[in-house]
């Protein structure tokens, strides 16, 4: 017997602020806050004059309470957003610890600590600190969350590039739906704003830089004819997922329902997107949710602002939805590309969209690329009845994940 899976709590830290309210506000009144990478980073060979998306002051203040000698920045973010989600869900601990799990996503785990450790040893000639391994390991965030809340069920970490946290949410949903678990803390965090990381992305030639960006105030421009590449960022989002029965026993209501999920692999290229894999993921998620394409009211596109990615996704959407496209948005135009945390933050944006009954704007869209005109995106927010949202996360390595969220409104 399958069970409905509810989202009863949400937490987030981004360049837009703290918590679900900050995302609802951005949904109605869009804004972006991108910065230049520090001048000091330019000393590293190949480090580009690029842009980045950094936590805002309010998010940084919240994060400071979770930063310790045993937490990487990404782990501190995970603890901060998990605390927000649990407070939102009125969940202080696991009523039945073995039936409570943690499912977390991160692209590169403790890379912030990794880079700092190499610098400490090779440049400063100083010994590494005792907790270095514990901070670096990819499953540190999931382990720290379980420790804090006493969750003794599955403790799983997904590292699938940009699809990491979407996969974590979907796999947790299936575990609850099939009765393996009652409740889970799920989400993703990423902290990769460091000079060598930027140099590595610059070597791929996919970043928006001072040289190739027309408008430095809006460097991330998915689907636009003036797009110039992606903007790397940091951030995190977390959710409390529960079976409907478990939530009702606790006397809490849902913010949204996780209704469908699917994951596919292109098996064709490590870096180039493939239309067939994306189409299969979306169609399988629709089938998992028992929905038809016409029942999707809004789409949060993966759209990163790169030429190949935006065009392929536009074509894939046509294959799935035909000419009558639902309203779509690329929220990365506001928060940038958060890599392993992106799927979780965009799922939180989907909850905000359901709350606001408004599809957010895609900033910097005008003029739209003629190759992407089939995507029903707009440079302004659009109000309208929204019952179901599909969100996509497509990753290096050929992984494609699609997730469907539904409103709880009657």
Could you state the order of secondary-structure elements as H and E? EEHEEHHEHHHEHEHEEHEHEHEHHEEEE
Number of strands: 16
Assigned CATH superfamily of the largest domain? Thiolase/Chalcone synthase
Low-confidence stretches: none
> What is the fold named in CATH at topology level of the largest domain?
Peroxisomal Thiolase, Chain A, domain 1
Range of strand content: 15-25%
Q: What is the approximate shape? A: globular
Main sheet?
11 strands, mixed
The SS-based structural class is: alpha/beta
Average of the residue pLDDT scores: 96
Number of H- or I-type helical stretches: 13
CATH class placement of the largest domain? Alpha Beta
Number of domains: 2
Instruction: Quickly give the CATH architecture of the largest domain.
Output: 3-Layer(aba) Sandwich
Radius of gyration: 20 Å
Distance between the termini: 24 Å
Summarize the amount of helix as a percent range: 25-40%
Describe this structure in words.
The chain is an alpha/beta fold and 410 residues long. It has two domains: 5-256, 3-Layer(aba) Sandwich (Peroxisomal Thiolase, Chain A, domain 1), CATH 3.40.47; 260-406, Thiolase/Chalcone synthase (Peroxisomal Thiolase, Chain A, domain 1, 3-Layer(aba) Sandwich). The protein has helices at 19-28, 57-64, 73-88, 111-123, 132-136, 140-149, 164-177, 195-204, 244-250, 275-288, 307-321, 332-335, 342-356; strands at residues 5-14, 17-18, 35-36, 51-53, 100-105, 155-158, 183-190, 232-233, 235-243, 256-265, 298-300, 327-329, 358-359, 382-383, 388-394, 399-406. Strand 11 (298-300), helix 11 and strand 12 (327-329) form a beta-alpha-beta unit. The protein contains 13 helices and 16 strands. The mean pLDDT is 96. The protein is globular. Helix 1 packs across helix 13 (342-356) and helix 10 crosses helix 11. The strands form three sheets. Strands 1, 2, 5, 6, 7, 9, 10, 11, 12, 15 and 16 form an eleven-stranded mixed sheet that branches. Strands 3-4-8 form a three-stranded mixed sheet, with no helix packed on it. Strands 13-14 form a two-stranded antiparallel sheet. The longest helix has 16 residues, at 73-88.
